[in-house]
Amino acid sequence: MDIATLAFSAIYQFGDAFAFLVLSACGLAIIFGMMGVINLAHGEFIMCGAYVTATASHAGLPLPLAILAGTVVSGLVGALVEFVVIRHLYERPLDTIVATWGLSLIATQGTLIMIGSTMAGIGTPLGSFQVGAYSYSIYRIVLFFAALGVLAGLYAVFNWTRFGVLARATIQLPHMAAGLGVDTRLIYSLTFACGAALAGLAGGLYAPTMTLVPTMGATFIMEAFVTVVIGGADVFLGTAPAAGVLAVVKSAMTSWQGQLFGQIGLLVAVIIVIRVLPKGLSGFVLRERT
Amino acid sequence: MGSLVSLLRRLEGPQTVGRGPVFWMLFAVVLAAALAFPTFSDGYTVGNTVYFFVWVFIALSLSLIWGYGGSLSFGQTAFFGIAGYAYGVLTINFGSAYGFTLIALLLAIAIAALVALLLGYFMFFGRIEGVFLGIVTLAVTLMLERFMAQTAGPEWHIGTARLNGFNGMSGMPPLTIPWPGGPIVLFADVGLYYAVLGVLVLVYLALRVVMNSSFGNVIVAIRENPERAEMLGYDVRKYQLITFVIGAVLAGLSGVLYTAWGQYITPSSMGMTAAALPLIWVAVGGRSDLTSTVIGTLAVLAGFQALTIYGSQYALVVMGVLLVLTVLIAPNGIVLGIMNWMARLSSRKKRGGN
């Protein structure tokens, strides 16, 4: 194998890991950034998106539209959950975590009861291409650009729309924003729904590459948590660079010792980072919030 | 003698609910009932009750860390699993002769405590707070489950003990007490029942003493306001680390007893669902009080088992609903709420009498 194919393989694996981390974490990150709350039902929103996408795709919808359906449905479920449970708990972040865990349990077991232990998947589209001795999936490259697209889209929304300006004001000084007439409750609700929709998008995008089981959310959450813990509240200054760094660790460890060690590498990286940089991005942002 | 009296005085205090002769009389009645229980019950029920008792230790550990200390840890099942596996590996390798199972019990708990010390050092001395603490401990737990689940191959063994991946380890000997007239093997029956009940009562009373001592008061002060505790000269990180390690010891004890009880341990005992269950018991019972935690854990476990007849997935949905409702409606716990209400009622009656 010559240098070029080796380099391509490394870049491909990095891109794959980066896309996975960004897509699975950004929904969690914007909810965390806004409300200082970790949504433990995040994985179940991803599962919801994947299931809806698969169902829509089986019903004959083209894949992009099916993914859109998954995103929208997850967003709506997120809005409902916010209305019924989350909005009563804004003063108690730890209780919010516990409550969302209860929701996650309900969602996983409820899906198991209603749909069964597995659901017919959808094949990975677009086929593959050959570089050197190895073949690569084209869809994985689509996923990488989708991750970049999501980051660009979030940047646009948070910087160039009225909602984005109000949301940033609410993040920075909730009371001041409320004093200036911003309906912060509405902003919170919209942000939660938005985070759930992004989780749904991640689920929809990865639905063709995975087996669909009620516990599939658990595949995503560890990576998502880790990225958010290192990255902190800001999606652009936190999540994206954290995903970049962690993707290097993960892809290197994975190609060295296999997938499990990729994940262990992530965990060790996180524990070391939080010790060495206790006031890193995340701690800094958290301090500002309290 | 004097120190013993002052120690016993700590059994009551500001950090635990229940005081006065009425409470201790009730305690004696419950204890007597628990002691008499095996005489008018069958072996299966007794073994099943031991199973309930085993889980109380992990619930107490969570009550200590979360309820008293204010740091939410999802990692208790990790220490449960580590100690359980350690007990399995040790006893399968060295057998149960000469009371080795008891040494294995202590060693397994020590290993769990050591892991907690290491992890806790990184977390508390890194000053991770609130939400992040929960996430890091959860990540550790899930990682450990994934790691153990992939150890199916024959290359994964420690000594003669195969780890067996997702199916878990089995065939380790039960706890055995060396005795002059031949060793007493504690099968999941009357013998283990009395042993575990004895340890449970000891741990419960010891924790009452510890939480009402100055150590416990500092822990609660840190929960209420870490900055203030720090300004008063307490090293918050050290106190949190010690609490975390004590919690890991209790969770580890739970893990060893569980492994010895059923003579098996599987990776799913560290999974997402397994990690959620202690949280539910403690939250429903009342996390900031030991007695409420014990009562709540036993009640929810019994309810859960009754529901499992209809299928465990239905029971888990009910558990999830119970957790969400508790957080929304009775954030301090249902049992604790009832106990406080009764205490208020009785004190009002007393005042009315005077």
Structure description:
The complex is a heterodimer of chains A (290) and B (354). Chain A has one domain: ABC transporter involved in vitamin B12 uptake, BtuC. The longest helix of chain A has 33 residues, at 3-35. Chain A starts with a helix and ends with a helix. In chain A, 77% of the residues lie in helices and 3% in strands. Chain A has helices spanning 3-35, 42-58, 63-84, 93-115, 138-160, 162-172, 174-179, 184-206, 217-231, 235-257, 259-276, 281-289; strands at residues 128-131, 134-137. Chain B has one domain (2-270). Chain B is 71% helix and 3% strand. Chain B is built from 14 helices and six strands. In chain B, strand 1 (157-158) and strand 2 (161-162) form a beta hairpin. Chain B is globular, with a radius of gyration of 21 Å. Chain B starts with a helix and ends with a helix. The A-B interface holds A 32, 36-38, 40, 85, 88-89, 92-95, 97-99, 101-106, 108-110, 112-113, 215, 218, 221-222, 225-226, 228-229, 260, 263-264, 267, 270-272, 274-275, 278, 282-283, 286 and B 72, 119, 122-123, 125-132, 134-136, 138-140, 142-143, 146-147, 150, 272-273, 276, 279-280, 283, 311, 313-314, 316-317, 319-324, 327-328, 331.
Short description:
The complex is a heterodimer of chains A (about 290) and B (about 350). By secondary structure, chain A is mainly α.
